[in-house]
Design brief:
The chain is an alpha/beta fold and 261 residues long. It has one domain (2-260): 3-Layer(aba) Sandwich (Rossmann fold). Helix content is 46%, strand content 12%. It has helices at residues 2-31, 47-55, 73-76, 82-85, 107-111, 116-135, 149-161, 171-175, 180-194, 209-223, and strands spanning 34-41, 63-66, 94-98, 138-146, 201-205. Helix 1 (2-31) runs parallel beside helix 10 and helix 2 (47-55) crosses helix 10. It is globular. The mean pLDDT is 91. GO terms for molecular function: polyphosphate kinase activity. Uses inorganic polyphosphate (polyP) as a donor to convert GDP to GTP or ADP to ATP. Pfam families: PPK2.
């Protein structure tokens, strides 16, 4: 009973927050402002689920999700930030980064995917890079989704057991289990050296994913407080003629209706 009540409360609060997110989205589109939200955190923290919750009721033409894979050989030879710049928003857009340029601050050095020289160069350059972004008018918010090691292990075990979730477990996810302490140390250095008034870091407790989503979305809305833009209710024109069933003029095969069985 308590669990059902908690789930009802979550759905109710999430519905209210999605209305406000839709208002925020409408304000961005009307004003031409641009918003970038960076989601970082340990594997299985809940980044993808949070992004899905944020975008669930948004116009798909006004937001983009940037979840970049391993860089190609060409991309590896470019300026490190180059492939991320290509995904920055146009006027009225939201871009949500499911991991970002901060791969080089935590994951890459922990897993040995970059050299010490590359790591140091990145840490020195990223504050200037983000200042360029925000000086151009882009609103930049950065979230770290925090999860304890025992909770992360439970989520890994759940993914391993569920055939529909196994795709979420990459070889890097499994290897990172032995890097928990090192990743924590690198995260602390990242936040310490790249937290700026123009590009702040916010840490959210994600041991309870549903509560974490609510807290993060509520906080995001507080950072961009213009979310009272409602879409006017349209007046539907009067239907001409009598309602008709769907009619297909060309020969086609209908998919069987399972409810007829």
């Amino acid at each position: 009973m308590a669990k059902k009540k908690k789930n009802r409360s979550y759905r109710h609060e999430m519905a209210e927050l999605q209305l406000q997110l839709a208002g925020l989205h409408r304000w961005l589109q009307r004003s031409g402002h641009r918003l970038v939200v960076v989601f970082e955190g340990r594997d299985a923290a809940g980044k993808g689920g949070t992004i899905k919750a944020i975008t669930e009721s948004m116009d798909t033409r006004g937001y983009r999700i940037a979840a970049l894979g391993k860089p190609s050989e060409t991309e590896s030879s470019q300026w490190y930030f180059q492939r991320y710049v290509e995904h920055l928003p146009s006027a009225g857009e939201i871009v949500l980064f499911d991991r970002s340029w901060y791969n080089r601050a935590v994951i890459e050095p922990a897993m040995g995917f970059c050299s010490k020289v590359q790591y140091k160069a990145f840490m020195a350059a990223v504050p200037a890079f983000e200042k360029l972004i925000t000086d151009d008018g882009i609103i930049l918010l950065k979230y770290w989704l925090a999860v304890d090691q025992d909770v992360q292990e439970e989520r890994f075990a759940d993914r391993a057991k569920d055939p529909l979730k196994r795709w979420k477990l990459s070889p890097n996810d499994l290897a990172s289990r032995e890097k928990y302490e090192e990743i924590g140390h690198l995260r602390d250095l990242m936040i310490e050296r790249t937290h700026r008034p123009c590009a702040p870091w916010f840490v959210v407790d994600y041991n309870d994913q549903k509560q974490g989503r609510i807290n993060l979305i509520r906080h995001l809305l507080e950072q961009v407080p213009r979310h009272d833009e409602t879409i006017p209710e349209p007046k539907l024109p009067k239907l001409k003629g009598k309602p008709k069933s769907e009619h297909v003029t060309r020969k086609a095969e209908w998919v069987p209706n399972s409810w007829d069985d």
